[in-house]
Design brief:
It is a single chain. The chain is of the alpha+beta class. The strands form five sheets. Strands 6, 7, 8, 11, 12 and 13 form a six-stranded antiparallel beta sheet that branches. The protein has a four-stranded mixed beta sheet with strand order 1-2-5-3, covered by helices on one side. A hairpin with a 2-residue loop joins strand 9 and strand 10. It binds flavin-adenine dinucleotide (FAD). The site of flavin-adenine dinucleotide has 33 residues, from strand 3, strand 9 and strand 13.
């Protein structure tokens, strides 16, 4: 494994902003991960673990220590195994592309992650924020996570409950009492999928897509529909499309108490508006962050300096061409201020800020 110096990080991310890594290594095996960690420890360098770079805002000054890109490949999935019921295990190297895994699972007629098709990044990155979309989240299908515990300096297998999955969070990205951010490097994730299972059609967008057809859609049809819907919303990373030069949704849908929802509804009514209600969001006491952003003066296609909002999705902050991290952060702050002033709601950000 070679350790390089002063490696530009922007091209390794989907947002394409940020400076360089002082040191950079790419690990293709567990031994190489250990080697890189030992290098960082011996020089007392701060370590940042990079997956597919699809959920990152890298600061313009870059990262002062070692950036370790996890490139462990391989999908192990015996077709005959004694998993109970009709499930099938997929043990996946953390560096495998997430959408490649989704495609493979669907091709094997296994259900459970078809609605997560088209999400960029690595398989090892998905447990970190419990990736979710169109009615599915990885917490539902992850059986266990194999990781290097940097505190204990040993490899551990964390069963699903030990990962503490919640909406867009897990022990891997939380700090404080119920978090372990920075402790584990994910090496492999084992998913348990349903052989021949029916696709998930919980979301209205998908129901609309298949409305009027006779017979249930196949897993492959659902995967393709999800990718097409994502493409229409600029939520597919397509090289050369400025609308995809983002981190996906920049803000989480806020979870509000009943009292807060009443306050928000009253504010909207006073302006002759009504807060849209989506059953899937409502069930989790969430309101649409996109609606809040758009009704605070930040519509699709909005530009502020060199940063902007996607022309297809109000939650996707984009780098239209030559934005720097400072431009993205200024826009993010303007939106948070605007939403708070207009609606009394503080929007929480979804991506990871590196080197700020
Ligand atoms: C166009 C677009 C659409 C998106 N749509 C969605 C969506 O629908 N739903 C959703 O949930 N997300 C979405 N995202 C966000 C992003 O794709 C996911 O969060 C993805 O799982 C991040 O994985 P990654 O490998 O790119 O991680 P990175 O961006 O490289 O890293 C993210 C965090 O995970 C950590 N990390 C990564 N790999 C490891 C590892 N092996 N071990 C330990 N820590 C690790 C990093 O240190 C960092 O803290 C979207 C992003 C884009 C650009």
């Amino acid at each position: 494994m070679t350790i390089r110096e002063n490696v530009a990080l922007a091209p390794l991310t989907t947002l394409r902003v940020g400076g360089a890594a002082r040191y950079f290594a790419e690990s293709r095996s567990e031994d190489e991960v250990r080697e890189a960690v030992a290098f960082a420890k011996s020089r007392e360098l701060p370590l940042f673990v990079l997956g597919g770079g699809s959920n990152l805002v890298i600061s313009d000054s870059g990262w002062p220590g070692l950036v370790l890109k996890i490139a462990i490949g391989g999908i192990v999935s015996p077709t005959m195994q004694n998993a109970p019921g009709s499930s099938r295990r997929f043990s996946v190297g953390a560096g495998v592309g997430w959408d490649d895994l989704a495609a493979f699972a669907v091709s094997q007629n296994c259900a459970g992650i078809e609605c997560l098709s088209g999400i960029p990044g690595s398989a090892g990155g998905t447990p970190v924020q419990n990736v979710g979309a169109y009615g599915q989240e990885v917490a539902e299908t992850i059986e266990s996570v194999r990781a290097l515990d940097m505190q204990e300096n040993r490899i551990v297998t964390l069963p699903n409950p030990a990962c503490g999955f919640r909406y867009r969070s897990s022990i891997f990205n939380r700090v404080g009492q119920d978090g372990e951010r920075g402790r584990y490097i994910i090496l492999q994730v084992t998913f348990r999928l349903r052989r021949g299972g029916a696709p998930c059609l919980k979301y209205a967008d998908l129901q609309k897509w298949f409305a009027g057809r006779t017979g249930a859609p196949s897993l492959m049809e659902v995967r393709e529909a999800v990718r097409e819907i994502r493409r229409s919303k600029g939520m597919l990373f397509v090289s050369g499309d400025a609308d995809g030069r983002s981190v996906g949704s920049f803000f989480k849908n806020p979870v509000l108490s009943e009292e807060e929802v009443r306050g928000l509804t009253a504010r909207a009514e006073a302006r002759g508006l009504s807060v849209p209600s989506y059953p899937t969001l409502e069930a989790q006491h969430k309101v649409s962050a996109a609606w809040l952003v758009e009704h605070s003066g930040f519509g699709k296609g909005f530009r502020m300096g060199r940063a902007g909002i996607s022309s297809k999705h109000a939650l996707a902050l984009i780098n239209p061409g030559d934005a720097e991290a400072v431009d993205i952060v200024a826009l993010k702050e303007a939106i948070q201020r605007g939403v708070e002033e207009n609606w009394g709601v503080r929007l929480e950000t979804e991506p990871v800020f590196v080197g700020f």
